[in-house]
Amino acid sequence: MDAYNIIQHLHSGFRYVVLVLLILAIIQSLIGWINKSPYTEGNRKINLFTLISVHTQLLIGIVLYIISPMVRFNSETMKNSTLRYFAVEHWVGMVIAIVLITIGHSKSKKIVLPEVKHKTIALYYLIALLIVVGTLAAGHIPILK
Ligand code: HEM
Ligand code: HEM
Q1: Could you tell me the distance, in angstroms and rounded to a whole number, from the CA of residue 55 to the centre of ligand 2?
Q2: What is the pTM of this model?
Q3: Under DSSP, is residue 76 helix (H, G, I), strand (E, B) or coil?
Q4: Quick check: 59 pLDDT over 90?
Q5: Distance linking the first and last C-alpha atoms of the chain
């Protein structure tokens, strides 16, 4: 296995870490929002780990973008849907989702009312999840494989 293979497998497998954390964060914040429950240390940690997981996926993704043979720029790039997906659509969609998670997390830290903290995480992370899932689907990448 060369460096490309290792990083490609890392990025591919890390999708599960991202998706599981994101879904956990959304569920706990929806419950917290609806029940008006306190914002616990456990809530804070899951929300932070979710942020860290997507930033890590971003970093691995950038390295992959530089070294992957799936990312090439020539006269075929925009005509071939798979090449175009990895050259443009994949990273644009994922970066939008990661920015939303980063903004949601940052806003939630500044808010004092627990209910509003939960609500902020729930909304930003949920929209981000839909964009991640939509972006994977657009590239015909299975969520579970
Ligand atoms: C939440 C964020 C992200 C998720 C969940 C994600 C997930 C994935 C998945 C599941 C694959 C398919 C791997 C396979 O074929 O088995 C993939 C491929 C790829 N991703 Fe991402 N990705 C994310 C963000 C990014 C970002 C931000 C970039 C670039 C800046 C990026 C660059 C790539 C590239 C270049 C490939 C093609 C790899 C190859 O087959 O050579 N990804 N990604
Ligand atoms: C290309 C790579 C990365 C970029 C562009 C990036 C960008 C950012 C930005 C803009 C913030 C500020 C959020 C705020 O103002 O609240 C932030 C926060 C943070 N990032 Fe990243 N990041 C990257 C990689 C990473 C990696 C690899 C990790 C960890 C493994 C990480 C962990 C964190 C943590 C822990 C925070 C602070 C969360 C807090 O507010 O408590 N980031 N990052």
Answers
A1: 6
A2: 0.96
A3: coil
A4: yes
A5: 21
